[in-house]
Write a structure and sequence with these properties.
Structural class: mainly alpha
Helix content: over 70%
Radius of gyration: 46 Å
Largest sheet: none
Strand content: under 5%
Length: about 200
């Protein structure tokens, strides 16, 4: 408590016995114990309040951070961000957009709108306005009206061949390392033989 040894405590007790007297010593010790208890309770209460204030300060900081995150999320949410609708709109505008001309009549004649006969031939070419419209609207196209055929997938590599090739390269590397180590171990022997 106060780093006192037994000898020091006995000296203090003897002085207290002489000064206070044997009759009033128990009352004095009881009073000292009560005062010490009150001081400890007050110190514990103060420490508890201090710790609570620290927790509240930390909670306030965390609350501020959460409020900032919440505000940023609501700000992003208020912009009505809808990536699917954005893609649909971009596809629709790119498909339906007229070709811009610089006022040259020859360019306007070169870029013509497809004739109704050409539109009728579009399903035979593998794509049509209905299938493009279905893709733009996000629904499945009519199975009788196929979309443009996709290119064939790239050739796949057999995983077994890749593993075998990797193991072969590793074995070659280890053989080279072993040969190099053997060569280096023979060089000091040759140098010793030449010196002797």
């Amino acid at each position: 408590m106060l780093d006192m040894s037994w000898g020091e405590i006995m000296v203090i007790g003897a002085v207290a016995l002489i000064v206070i007297g044997p009759k009033d010593l128990p009352k004095a010790l009881r009073t000292v114990g009560q005062v010490t208890g009150k001081l400890r309770r007050m110190a514990a209460e103060f420490q508890g309040q201090f710790n609570e204030a620290m927790r509240e300060a930390e909670l306030d900081e965390v609350k501020k951070q959460l409020q900032g995150v919440n505000d940023s999320v609501t700000a992003v949410g208020s912009t009505n961000f809808n990536p699917i609708q954005t893609i649909r709109d971009e596809l629709k505008t790119s498909i339906e957009a007229p070709v811009s001309t610089n006022g040259n009549a020859s360019e306007a004649e070169a870029v013509q709108q497809p004739a109704p006969a050409e539109i009728a031939q579009a399903p035979s070419q593998g794509t049509s306005d209905a299938s493009i419209q279905a893709v733009v609207e996000g629904r499945a196209p009519d199975p009788t009206d196929p979309l443009v055929d996709l290119p064939p997938p790239p050739p796949t590599v057999d995983p077994a061949q890749e593993i075998a090739e990797s193991l072969r390269r590793e074995a070659e590397y280890e053989a080279q390392q072993a040969a190099l180590a053997e060569h280096l171990s023979q060089q000091p022997e040759k140098a010793d033989a030449k010196a002797g």
